[in-house]
Each structure stands twice: as C-alpha cells, then as structure tokens.
C-alpha cells in the first residue's frame, strides 16, 4: 500500500485509535444534528417572516378588526406569530371592554399584557434549538482538539517501540489526530454562521412584533375614547 493510500482520510479514520474514532463519530453526529436544526430553523424563520409580512399587509390595509380577529380564530393552524399576538390582544380587549366600571387604561393595559405573554411564547418557539447551535460552535473545536492531542500522544507512545524515529513512522499518527480537529471545525463553522444569521433574523422579527404591539395598543386606546 502506498503512502497516499495510507494517508487517505478514510484509512486514517479506520486506523485511528479508539478514542480518536469515538471523538470523530461524536463530532460527525453533532454535525449531522446541527445541520438538521439549521435547515429546520431556516424554513421556520422564513415562514415566520412571510406570515408576518402578509398579516401586516392585511392589518394596515384598513380592514375591520373584528373580521381580522374572526379570520385568526377560524384559521388558527395557519396563522403566524404576529397574527396570534393580535388575536390574544384583541380577545382580551373585547373581554375587558364588556365589563363595567373598568378604566379605559386598565382595558388597554390588560390587552397589552396578553399580547406580551403571547409574544414571549412565540419568540421562544422561533428561537428553539439556537442554543444547541451555539454549543456546537463553541465546543466542537475543543472536542476536536482533544482528539488531536490524544492521537498525537498515542503516536508518540508508539515511537517508543520503534528503533528509529522517522517521518514515515510518525506521520500517519499525527495525520489521523489532525482529522479530529478538521472535523471539529467542520462541525463548528456552519453552526456559528447559522447562529449569527438566525440571531439577526429573530431580532428583526422581535422588533417588528414589539412595534406592532405598541401601534395596536395605540389603536385600542383610541377606540376606548
């Protein structure tokens, strides 16, 4: 077997020590899971953005609030986060408004609290699994480095049984150890990029939700006059 075959990635992994193989398998599994969450969250954030834009167009088109509310109630499974925020706020507003001897400010404040509770639940849902990507991005290089250090130690221990230390004797062990670092970086870099991108998108959605809650509260306050 020639040197190029001995130093191929597959052969290096197959011939690596058990600890290095475990590290590589762990990093490969973590990378697969992170890619699954990346694609899943990409579709979720994209859907949330599309639904938000659609509801904003419907809301600011001047339609009747009662009609918008009934549409949200009748199509609960197809509504977006902003529409659910609107639904909870308008439902609380209608319930409190029907009660007697309530100050108009208390009615609007109750509606705002209902929207805030729904907003927090929606953000938690949109933000799900992003912490996992952060963990992968921060921990994977260190796990890969551990595999590398262990592989190099294993390689140098093997040199004790060799009469003459040559590059050909030590190269395969060091190469197999460096594979762990490479896979650690392969797992970490996409996770970090995705985490930062999703953080930006979720912050933008959060700002839009908060702006909508304030604007809708102002509309409800005018209706109480």
Strand content: under 5%
Category by helix and strand content: mainly alpha
The main pleated sheet reads as: none
What overall geometry do the principal axes of the alpha carbons give?
rod-shaped
Query: Residue ranges: pLDDT <50 for 5 or more in a row?
Result: 1-5
Question: In angstroms, what separates the terminal alpha carbons?
Answer: 88 Å
Could you tell me the mean pLDDT?
85
* Helix share bin: over 70%
Tell me the domain tally: 1
Topology, number of strands: 0
- Helix-strand string: HHHHHHHH
Task: Provide the gyration radius in Å.
Answer: 28 Å
Count of separate DSSP helical elements: 8
Would you give an account of this structure?
This protein has helices at 3-6, 9-14, 18-59, 65-74, 81-97, 104-126, 130-159, 167-223. The N and C termini lie far apart (88 Å). It has eight helices and no strands. It has one domain (3-223). With 225 residues, it is mainly α. α3 packs antiparallel against α7 (130-159). The model is unreliable at 1-5 (pLDDT under 50).
């Amino acid at each position: 077997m020639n040197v190029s075959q001995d130093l191929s990635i597959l052969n290096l992994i197959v011939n690596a020590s058990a600890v290095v193989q475990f590290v590589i398998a762990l990093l490969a599994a973590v990378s697969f899971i992170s890619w699954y969450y990346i694609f899943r969250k990409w579709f979720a954030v994209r859907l949330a953005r599309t639904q938000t834009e659609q509801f904003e167009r419907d809301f600011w088109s001047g339609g009747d609030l009662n009609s918008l509310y009934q549409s949200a109630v009748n199509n609960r499974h197809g509504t977006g986060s902003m529409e659910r925020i609107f639904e909870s706020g308008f439902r609380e507003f209608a319930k409190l408004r029907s009660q007697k001897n309530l100050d108009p400010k208390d009615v609007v404040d109750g509606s705002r609290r209902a929207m805030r509770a729904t907003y927090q639940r929606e953000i938690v849902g949109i933000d799900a699994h992003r912490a996992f990507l952060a963990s992968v991005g921060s921990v994977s290089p260190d796990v890969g480095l551990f595999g590398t250090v262990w592989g190099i130690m294993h390689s140098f221990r093997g040199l004790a049984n060799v009469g003459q230390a040559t590059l050909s004797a030590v190269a395969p062990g060091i190469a197999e150890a460096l594979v762990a670092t490479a896979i650690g970086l392969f797992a970490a870099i996409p996770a970090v990029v995705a985490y930062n991108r999703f953080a930006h998108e979720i912050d933008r959605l959060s700002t839009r939700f908060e702006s909508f809650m304030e604007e809708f509260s102002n509309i409800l306050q005018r209706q109480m006059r």
